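Researcher: We plan to redesign the surface later, but first we want a full-length starting point. Tokens attached.
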């Protein structure tokens, strides 16, 4: 499957499983988002970690039930190892081929999508993923991703140097994919880079489901 192939041929495969500065940075960003939005980790018991790497972000929060969505089956082992003493139960789903569970049977307190959306193989895939996320109705959604103020872009073919950067979304258009959510925290944009001549920046957001 396309998304499996992208990830399996990448050099990043091991670096994002091992604890290192990049993980520390993402943990700090997630914590900054939670504190900016006044969300206590003690209230986050059921976590959906979509694109978990080594599961370090979930490990940092802890809770009762952890749902892991990944496209590389053998990440499961390391994620379980890293998270097992922080959760009562862990469920792993190989979601390649957009094979998402229709429901998770639990109220999800927070979904974490950190450094994963830009790996998704097309804009349509991102839209489908966000649609699916809407179905799970997490109370909060924490996202770190590469965005642009320009037009959406997707990679048309695999190239070694852009292998893992498969799409970039316009930041405002992206927010429209979560119509039942409002942004309750956002961190400063990180330095702009260029991808396929598009000016991109990395930014983190926390969304909250609008209570009706
Ligand atoms: C760069 S790591 C991010 C890890 C972690 N979220 C963090 O911020 O440290 C990307 C993770 O997303 C997974 N992944 C890649 N494409 C995916 C997709 N389409 N759906 C779900 N997970 C995906 C990778 O296997 C890996 O576990």
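Model: Full-length starting sequence:
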């Amino acid at each position: 499957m396309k998304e499996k192939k992208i990830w399996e041929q990448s050099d990043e495969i091991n670096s994002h499983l091992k604890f290192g500065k990049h993980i520390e940075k993402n943990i700090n960003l997630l914590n900054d988002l939670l504190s900016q939005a006044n969300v206590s980790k003690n209230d986050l018991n059921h976590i959906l970690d979509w694109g978990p790497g080594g599961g370090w972000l979930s490990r940092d929060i802890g809770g009762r039930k952890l749902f892991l969505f990944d496209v590389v089956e053998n990440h499961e082992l390391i994620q379980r190892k890293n998270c097992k003493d922080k959760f009562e139960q862990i469920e792993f789903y190989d979601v390649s081929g957009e094979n998402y569970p229709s429901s998770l049977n639990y109220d999800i307190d927070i979904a974490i999508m950190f450094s994963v959306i830009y790996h998704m193989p097309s804009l349509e895939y991102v839209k489908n993923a966000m649609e699916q996320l809407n179905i799970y109705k997490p109370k909060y959604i924490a996202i770190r991703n590469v965005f642009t103020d320009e037009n959406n872009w997707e990679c048309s073919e695999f190239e070694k140097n852009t292998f893992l950067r498969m799409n970039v979304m316009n930041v405002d258009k992206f927010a429209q994919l979560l119509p039942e959510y409002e942004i309750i925290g956002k961190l400063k944009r990180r330095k702009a880079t260029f991808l396929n001549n598009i000016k991109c920046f990395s930014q983190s957001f926390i969304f909250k489901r609008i209570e009706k």
